[in-house]
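Ops channel
N.P.: pipeline sanity check, posting one input/output pair.
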């Protein structure tokens, strides 16, 4: 591995040189100008990505990986201005900002490729001069994309149905409110807009905020009644939903303004600088909270001097909804409000309310178990609504979820995993994978040894299952499963074949298919789905995720690969 890293020393040199050039460019401008230009570039790029289906993943990645180094540099130099004022950027300044963001993104992507090599995910197949060709280092490279496919299926098939049902209840359409946007937007200055949204427009976009939240599905890491700083999590979620609706409305007003005044630039219209109390008052009005509570919520969605270093250290983190520009002013970002504001929110809840955070994390198993049991509403399935402690020949352990089917006389023994996400960080990913497979495989070995060596009566007694003598005599066997709330299958790692492994989204997306073949055996259907739709088994059957040619140029060097 060390020789592989040494072979890419030329790429490290380019990274250092490019970052030095980016840093010089940032320092050549007043920090406020640099920050404002960055947020404007991010907002424009986000809107383009949402409206242009042809934009390539590699271009989108440049902005995803590029904003943090720039932000950290500029914000570190920034002294809070007592009365910050927005000024219009001209086309040249905006293009320079996009160019700078792209340059920083190339640095971030190249650093990510170096991490891929370092952690053995990819290998160098050829180096010619200052050009490197990489390829996957594993047969199952890319299986994690199947997890995203299952997630997409659930969002499409389940949540889109919910959205359609809600749309029928409240038949507001964009076509009906679009003329109102044009009528009510004003251009008091050539590059700035103003509007007073009619009730119909506000209602429509608040509805769109709800739908955006449903499609994003990033708010499920905590329960609605988990408390942080004296406020239930659902209030924070409601605030994010409200912000999403407002940001979507602001975006469409900006597009309407450009129709009215084509010389206006979108970058100047999207970010929104206002005094704190303006945003606080909106939350008080919409959420029925006190000013103190609204300020607390707002602070958890804001990057400032206290949290900038920590939050921007996460690889490819989502941009923040708000940036502190002075003691009394905040800059709101459309990209920050709509991309994934829960990344900053959950980071801040952990940083500010650590005891509350870990208490809520401890509640995840109960929530996961409850969600799992809802997939099996059949009355003939007995469910134990708690974890069960057992003593196995290999040591004591817990069974997180137990179900017994009285019709098929089969038992499901399930481990539930709900770790924190690791984002795009390869270091954190390596730690998660090692911990996940190590502990889960140990659990499988212990429970398998226990379930295969004990008599049925001993198993039922240990699980405290109240069965009739005939049911105990009719026992057919057990299904062993490991369920992960997020990613269950990784390129590297050796899951035990004694259990079926799967993600929550995989089970939700495929269980209906399994029940078509095993309508009278729900537990067997779940087990079969996890096995059959296991991404590695799918790969073995030739169902390989689509690869995308990828090439990135930095300085005089080029790196290419099929991802």
């Amino acid at each position: 591995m060390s020789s592989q890293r040494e072979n890419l020393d030329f790429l490290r040199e380019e990274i250092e040189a490019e970052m030095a050039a980016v840093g010089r460019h940032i320092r050549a401008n007043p920090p406020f100008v640099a920050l404002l230009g960055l947020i404007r570039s991010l907002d424009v790029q986000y809107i383009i990505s949402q409206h242009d289906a042809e934009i390539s993943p590699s271009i989108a990645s440049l902005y995803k990986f590029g904003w943090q180094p720039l932000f950290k540099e500029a914000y570190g130099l920034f002294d809070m201005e007592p009365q910050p004022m927005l000024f219009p950027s001209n086309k040249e300044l905006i293009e320079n900002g996009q160019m700078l963001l792209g340059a920083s993104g190339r640095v971030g992507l190249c650093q990510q490729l170096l991490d891929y090599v370092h952690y053995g995910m990819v290998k160098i197949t050829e180096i010619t001069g200052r050009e490197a060709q990489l390829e996957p280092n594993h047969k199952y490279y890319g299986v994690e994309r199947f997890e995203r496919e299952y997630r997409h299926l659930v969002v499409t098939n389940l949540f889109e149905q919910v959205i359609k049902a809600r749309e029928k209840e409240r038949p507001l359409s964009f076509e009906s409110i679009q003329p109102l946007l044009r009528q009510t937007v004003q251009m008091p200055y050539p590059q700035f807009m103003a509007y007073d949204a009619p009730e119909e427009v506000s209602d429509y976009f608040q509805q769109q905020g709800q739908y955006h939240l449903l499609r994003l599905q990033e708010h499920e890491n905590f329960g609605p009644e988990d408390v942080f700083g004296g406020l239930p999590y659902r209030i924070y979620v409601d605030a994010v939903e409200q912000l999403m609706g407002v940001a979507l409305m602001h975006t469409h007003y900006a597009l309407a303004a450009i129709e009215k005044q084509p010389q206006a630039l979108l970058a100047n219209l999207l970010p929104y600088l206002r005094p704190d109390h303006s945003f606080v008052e909106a939350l008080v009005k919409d959420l029925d909270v006190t000013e103190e509570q609204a300020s607390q919520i707002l602070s958890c969605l804001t990057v400032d001097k206290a949290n900038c270093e920590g939050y921007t250290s996460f690889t490819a983190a989502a941009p923040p909804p708000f940036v502190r520009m002075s003691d009394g002013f905040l800059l709101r970002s459309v990209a920050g409000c709509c991309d994934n504001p829960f990344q900053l929110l959950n980071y801040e809840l952990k940083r500010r309310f650590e005891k509350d955070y870990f208490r809520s994390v401890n509640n995840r198993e109960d929530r996961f178990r409850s969600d799992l049991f809802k997939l099996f509403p059949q009355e003939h399935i007995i469910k134990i609504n708690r974890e069960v402690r057992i003593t196995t020949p290999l040591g004591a352990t817990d069974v997180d979820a137990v179900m017994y089917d009285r019709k098929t006389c089969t038992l499901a023994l399930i481990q539930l995993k709900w770790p924190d996400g690791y984002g795009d960080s390869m270091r954190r990913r390596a730690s998660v994978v090692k911990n996940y497979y190590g502990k889960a495989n140990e659990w499988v070995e212990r429970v398998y040894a226990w379930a295969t060596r004990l008599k049925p009566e001993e198993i039922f007694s240990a699980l405290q299952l109240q069965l009739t003598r005939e049911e105990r005599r009719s026992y057919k066997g057990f299904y062993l499963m490991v369920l992960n709330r997020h990613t269950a299958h990784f390129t590297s790692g050796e899951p035990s074949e004694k259990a079926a492994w799967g993600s929550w989204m995989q089970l939700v997306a495929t269980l209906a298919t399994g029940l078509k073949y095993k309508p009278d055996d729900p537990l067997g259907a779940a087990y079969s789905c996890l096995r059959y739709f296991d991404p590695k088994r799918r790969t073995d059957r030739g169902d390989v995720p689509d690869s995308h040619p990828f090439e990135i140029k930095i300085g005089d060097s080029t790196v290419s690969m099929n991802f």
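N.P.: looks fine end to end. Residues 91-118 form the longest helix (28 residues).
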